[in-house]
Design goal:
The protein is 38% helix and 17% strand. It is α/β, with parallel strands linked by helices and 510 residues long. The protein has two domains: 2-178, Ribosomal Protein S5, domain 2; 195-509, Rossmann fold (3-Layer(aba) Sandwich). It has a five-stranded parallel beta sheet. α2 (44-54) crosses α3 (81-91), α8 (202-214) packs parallel to α18 (408-425) and α21 (468-484) crosses α22. The chain starts with a strand and ends with a helix.
Length: 510
Amino acid sequence: MYSKVFSASVFGIDAFIVEIETHLDPAMPGMVIVGLPDSAVKESKERVTAAIKNSDLAFPQKKITVNLAPADVRKEGSAFDLPIALGVLTSLGIVPQESLEHTIALGELSLEGTLRPIHGALSIAVECAKRGFKRIILPKENAEEAALTGKLDVIPAESLKDVVDYLNGRYEIKSTVVELDQIFDNFSDMAILDLADVKGQENVKRALEVSAAGGHNILMIGPPGSGKTMIAKRIPGILPPLSLEESLETTKIHSVSGLLSKDEALIRIRPFRSPHHTISNAALVGGGVGNVRPGEISLAHHGVLFLDELPEFARNVLEVLRQPLEDKTISIARTKMNVEYPANFMLVCSMNPTPDGESFDKTQSSPQQIKNYLSKISGPLLDRIDIHIEVPAVKYDDLSSKRKGEASSEIRKRVIKARQIQIERFSKYKNIYKNADMPTKVIREYCDLDDVSQNLLKMAMAKFGLSARAYDRVLKVSRTIADLDSSDKIEAKHISEAIQYRTLDREFWG
């Protein structure tokens, strides 16, 4: 007695199809699962056995062999419970084999036979639609997420008994349908935190506007209490809204990580991740035992990664940021696998100028202490941060003033306008959506300078000792400043402002 049920599993943020073959043999009763199962999959036999019996369904007193194909790829997680149970029941003839044609089944079973949610439903649904499957049966908590593809008949199930009755035509389960465009268009992601609450710091707000308009990385240096963290938390309020494509890609990452809210099937607000400075390498870039999970840099994809008190992070942790900041992806290599996650995020950092937080002229720290403190941040990492801005202590007059600053919504309008210019500019390129994404070849095409601007940049490079990478970063930032001015050409004033954002690191680290 033999049956075949189709399921799927996640690898990285993508999925692959798994064939679950079940064979019953009149030998000593028991269940064996082969095909490189992990511990969670091996334990399925206990959950499946109890779930079938507690659902008042027949359980064979025979040897049950379950093969998960392809057999040379490791299978992980509890999502195979439902398809394994269906395989056993199909082998007994309780579930018709033909009822499972073009169907994917997923779900973790409780001992009483109810279905529990799984991770990565959206990635699996996308792969199933691509491979020509017509229907997916999964826990009702994952139904809206799977229905986002709009290409599958999504069956939300509550228990194993419901699934068996549905496949036998004795019970009707209404398909889940999601109007993706309507959900996306009707959502307002206006930030609760507003830059209007920040007193003074107009130069910092301008730097943030430039940073948001081009997706540039930014470092804020200032004493404690100057508002660095307060300002950083308000950055999502001036970023443009997620596009539908960005929203779906971000949702896939959070779904695979098990961080997707039960109340929302679609991520519609740009992520803002702020890990503690005790974070490890693996937690930042991704890793783990067995199946490699996305790290903070991937969870911040299409959003903001905020590193508060930058020198407090271990230097080896900060250094792993260098490659993803350049490539916009992170490749994690293990002995038996190589996983690539997207990591196109905006890096926002803050730090004190000295170990005790005081400015150079007031600090009690020794020159050696200051040097050790600043040396935790390497030159190559600083080079990858486009904008460096000083955040001075707020003056009393600014704090006591009743005048409100410019609202985030107004700044955001200018940012969206500049981003739209960039989207149209880079429409012929793949994976280039904003100025920060420009590779060297594209920089040369769209950042042409006149003689005055060339001479200005030449003098700045000689005076401040800027690297070749810093040269490219200045051009990218100047292109963004020109876009904010709705200028087709980069003028001397744009270059001048961009250079201004590259001098602070020479002052502190020089």
